[in-house]
Design a protein that fits this description.
The complex is a heterotrimer of chains A (329), B (342) and C (297). Chain B contains 14 helices and no strands. Chain B is mainly alpha-helical. Chain B has a domain of 204 residues: MetI-like fold (Orthogonal Bundle), CATH 1.10.3720. Chain C is globular and about 75 Å long. Classes of the chains: A alpha/beta (329), B mainly alpha (342), C mainly alpha (297).
Chain lengths: 329, 342, 297
């Protein structure tokens, strides 16, 4: 898979810490997350359910539920720290600089308004008045793969299929030409054929509009198909970052290796599928030091006592581990 | 876009007619089948034997039940709803005469309830947990818990007894009725006085209307505030709201357009209930304010054991309720297109 | 067995969680407290009322229209009876009304709804049509016509009110039964050969009990209000019953001169109705699985 060269840095998330207040206590959802996204690239954010990938996206946009609190960190977009921006400026950034599509497209679209009405609200919210509205939205819908935009514009969301809804959601998100598009599990609710279509569409968006895409998913296959670079998340931490090829070919974190090993491949008859022993830790009372240590066969004293930082290991590859794979030390 | 709307409306209309038929049948059963001596009920306790016998003939009680039933239906359709015991007048005509006075209160009360309840419910939901929200919750609870007749008395005590700024009872003060009488066009004194440019009459009728309307509005305010608040809270949690907010849509548009339109549909259902309540609540309110409407008519009918009148009011009130619900139903399907699929 | 013990522990901690949630919300707690007070007063009314005979209705003409004082905190009525005692004894009537009307409505409505939702088909159709008819009447109008036919009185009023209320529980239960019917464990039970009645009793009913509980609590408030309204127009409790609505009705004409006499009974109705609504409201927020998990910051 060849990708055009990713451009300079677009989004820089550093030391992001996020907690949730729940009935059972404080949930330590994100723990020092570092994430950098370049221009014109599709960055994958992969991890299991509960690893914190979705709340990372919500944090960037700052649309967290009421009981969530960003305790620490910086989210810098084109030189501006989003965590220090006032509400109105933030609203103007949303949709214009950063936009998002969520997992379930039928839940992203308002059921009592037509597509036309919703797209109009989107554009008017950012641009006051909509010049050549019809032409503009028609072209947007064509860009996402609708040869007949008129019919779509007049429809209500429940009259469209899941794949169509997702494409409409994408059109809405792209209507003000954002520089970063966050796609949170955009294909999970769709069938395999539609999945491939959406992935192809995302790539087209990157190529023709120069938009960067943060593609959040738990599906390694999607990552392999679509992403230029990938960040692996575990229990609220980024544990490994690198180009897709590097990370898949030579993973440096034991968790990543475990994930890749667990993919069903052709195994000989009678061989068991390798699994990562243990289970995801509770985020109410997370393990000390490296959160993966209870499940890691290579854990040592230092892994239990001190949290490893995400540091460069090889050119273009970062890992948060005291004993990364391929390390002779 | 309005596809399916006409079909849905037609379906609901047919259903409503069936329900109406069932309701009328039910009242027939209650009136003729349940009591041991229907004639006795119809002529009341003070009737003579001759009157009782005549009632037996008129009601056709010696004829088979299904004949009675069809006569009953025919009577309803042709406007013969029985003769009231007290005034020996046609029950239907009585009802229609007293109706506008009651409608005046009901309409104003529900308008007040909507104008107060919906904004209160919305702000309460948006500012959940704040002082305004607590106020909203309390209003909702107080509204549905207050005995309206008691509240009406308190209003009288406060505004008439203590402050002397509003009248005690009736629709017009005696002086105004004599010197600035309101010509009857629709039967709504406020409207009629406006139409005839009788401003003294308008102000006076409004002053008389306001307390009964407020007293009747308490329960609807409670219902509407509660429903709007809880629906808005639910809707604001929905993913499409999160999507809109995450993509930068103006907050005011999100709340008052995107969220409210979704929340309003169940609120319309509640408005129907509120009308149902208003119909029966009017009975209580009118007694207290000496308001010459259907409520007073019903109370007098109860006191006099005027069974035909009571029956007539029950059927009329139910028809009114069915019509209101049908209208709200269709309005809901207009707002939320998914309803048309049911 | 180990599973049962685990279930028991889980249920106990759930109850504890609910208890804690109730305590946390001041309003719900207030409602709960008022209801406890109400039930206590109703049960021990004859011992708590300072003038129990007057409370029951015995007139005391020399004491007519006394304003509130130390001896008579709520004043006296037009027959010289101590209003406080009347109100206290009236709580018995209100409690009986609330419990009987709602209990009857639930007893009639819930099984019908469960059967309708669970079995579906013709049975469902018939039950729903009957429910629709009852629901098409504005409730008090239905009660009025029933009472006009059967004759006034507290007992008839309670029966009439139950008859106007049961359809709501049928609808509620039916919705629950419909959704639960599709659940896997019901299919599993059927496959094993468990009888339909057993499934209804052991699986459907317990899970559907929550909304019925919430609705029932709030409906107790409405039942008290409705009965008070009926007594107000003379169709419910009859003199000399210390029923609160009746007291407001007889006191109505005296509101301007002897305000205490209709005011305090009405206040009692209000307080009890508010309490039931607060509790029901609070219960709904607590028991609703969607709102359960979060705590505001």
């Amino acid at each position: 898979m060849t990708a055009s060269e990713p451009g300079p840095q677009l989004l820089d998330v550093s030391e992001l810490k996020l907690t949730f207040q729940t009935v059972e206590g404080t949930l330590y959802a994100l723990d020092n997350v570092d994430l950098h996204i370049n221009r014109k690239e599709i960055m994958g954010l992969v991890g299991e359910t509960g690893s914190g990938k979705s709340v990372t996206a919500l944090s960037i946009l700052q649309v967290l539920p009421d009981n969530g609190r960003i305790v620490q960190g910086r989210i810098v977009l084109q030189g501006e720290d989003l965590l220090k921006t006032n509400a109105e400026k933030l609203r103007r950034i949303r949709g214009v600089k950063v936009a998002v599509v969520f997992q379930d497209p039928s839940a992203s679209l308002n059921p009592v308004f037509t597509i036309r009405s919703q797209m109009k609200d989107m554009i008017l919210s950012h641009e006051g008045e909509a010049q050549d509205f019809e032409g503009r939205v028609s072209k947007l819908l064509q860009d996402v793969g609708f040869p007949n935009p008129e019919r779509i514009l007049d429809s209500y969301p429940h009259e469209l299929s899941g794949g169509m809804q997702q494409r409409v959601a994408l059109a809405m998100a792209l209507s003000c030409s954002p520089e970063l598009l966050i796609a949170d599990e955009p294909t999970t609710a769709l069938d395999v054929v539609t999945q491939a279509q959406i992935i192809a569409l995302l790539k087209r968006i990157r190529d023709t509009r120069g938009t960067s895409i943060l593609l959040i998913t738990h599906n390694l296959g999607i990552v392999a198909m679509a992403c230029d670079r990938v960040a692996v998340m575990y229990a609220g931490n980024i544990v490994e970052v690198g180009s897709t090829e590097q990370v898949f070919r030579s993973p440096t974190h034991h968790y990543t290796k475990g994930l890749l090993d667990a993919l069903p491949k052709t195994v000989s008859k009678g061989e068991m599928l390798p699994v990562i022993r243990g289970s995801i830790p509770s985020l109410l009372d997370p393990p000390s030091g490296c959160r993966f240590h209870p499940r890691c066969p290579f854990a040592t004293e230092v892994c239990i006592s001190r949290k490893p930082k995400l540091e460069p290991f090889r050119p273009g590859q970062l890992v948060a581990c005291y004993h990364p794979i391929g390390d002779s030390a | 876009m309005q596809s399916g709307l006409a079909k849905y409306a037609a379906r609901r209309l047919v259903l409503a007619l069936f329900v109406l038929l069932a309701v009328v049948t039910f009242t027939f059963i209650v009136a003729r089948v349940v009591p041991s001596d229907p004639a006795e009920l119809y002529v009341g306790p003070k009737a003579t034997a001759a009157q009782r016998e005549r009632a037996q003939l008129e009601l056709g009680l010696n004829r088979p039940l299904y004949v009675q039933y069809f006569d009953y239906l025919r009577g309803l359709l042709t406007g013969n709803w029985g003769i009231s015991l007290k005034g020996h007048t046609s029950v239907l005509r009585d009802i229609l005469t007293y109706l506008p006075a009651t409608l005046e209160i009901i309409i104003l009360a529900n308008v007040i309830a909507v104008l107060v309840g919906i904004p209160l419910g919305v702000y309460s939901a948006v500012k959940k947990g704040s002082l305004l929200d607590q106020g909203g919750r309390l209003t909702a609870i107080a509204g549905v818990s207050i005995p309206s007749f008691w509240f009406a008395l308190l209003l009288q005590l406060l505004f008439f007894g203590t402050l002397h700024i509003l009248p005690l009872e009736g629709r017009l003060s005696v002086i105004v009725a004599i010197y600035y009488p309101v010509k009857t066009i629709t039967g709504f004194y406020t409207l009629d006085s406006l139409l005839t440019l009788n401003f003294v009459g308008f102000v006076d009728s409004l002053r008389h209307l306001i307390l009964p309307a407020i007293a009747l509005a308490t329960y609807p305010i409670g219902l509407i505030t509660r429903m709007t608040r809880s629906m808005m809270i639910e809707v604001l949690r929905e993913n499409y709201i999160r999507f809109a907010r995450a993509n930068g849509i103006i907050e005011r548009v999100i709340i008052f357009k995107h969220a409210l339109k979704n929340a309003i549909v169940p609120t319309l259902t509640v408005l129907g209930l509120s009308f149902a309540y208003s119909i029966t609540g009017a009975v209580l309110i009118e007694i207290i304010f000496g308001w010459p409407g259907l409520g007073t008519y019903t109370l007098n009918a109860i006191i006099e054991a005027d069974y035909p009148a009571i029956l007539g009011v029950t059927i009329f009130g139910t028809i009114f309720y069915i019509v209101i619900n049908l209208t709200l139903d269709i309005a809901q399907s207009y707002i939320d297109p998914r309803v048309r699929l049911t | 067995m180990q599973l049962k013990a685990a279930q028991r522990i889980r249920r106990r901690s759930e109850v504890q969680l609910i208890g804690a949630s109730i305590r946390r919300d001041a309003l719900t707690m207030a409602g709960f407290a008022i209801i406890l007070l109400f039930v206590f007063v109703a049960i021990f009314a004859p011992f708590l009322a300072p003038y129990p005979n007057e409370g029951a209705g015995e007139p005391n003409p020399p004491n007519k229209f006394l304003p509130p004082s130390y001896a008579h905190p709520f004043g006296t009525d037009y027959l010289g009876r101590d209003v406080l005692s009347r109100v206290i004894l009236g709580s018995q009537v209100s409690l009986v009304v609330a419990v009987v009307v709602i209990a009857l409505a639930i007893l009639i409505g819930t099984p019908l709804g469960a059967v309708a939702g669970y079995f579906g088909g013709k049975v469902d159709e018939v039950i729903m049509r009957v429910t629709d008819v009852f629901l098409s009447f504005p409730s008090l109008l239905l009660a009025i016509i029933l009472l006009a036919t059967l004759g006034p009185g507290l007992t008839n009023a309670m029966i009439s009110l139950s008859l106007t209320w049961w359809p709501w529980y049928t609808r509620l239960m039916r919705a629950q039964a419909l959704s639960l019917r599709e659940r896997a464990y019901v299919d599993a039970a059927k496959v094993i050969g468990v009888s339909n009645l057993w499934i209804l009793l052991r699986h459907v009913l317990p899970n559907a009990i929550t909304p019925v509980l919430v609705q029932g609590t709030m409906d107790m408030s409405s039942a008290i209000l409705a009965e008070a309204g009926l007594s107000f127009i003379g169709l419910g409790a009859q003199a000399p019953s210390p029923e609160w609505g009746l007291m407001v009705s007889t006191g109505r004409i005296y509101i301007l001169n002897f305000w205490w006499f209709p005011t305090f009974p009405g206040l009692a109705i209000f307080a009890v109705a508010v309490a039931f609504n607060l509790l029901g409201d609070g219960l709904r927020e607590i028991l609703d699985p969607k709102t359960r998990r979060f705590v505001q910051q």
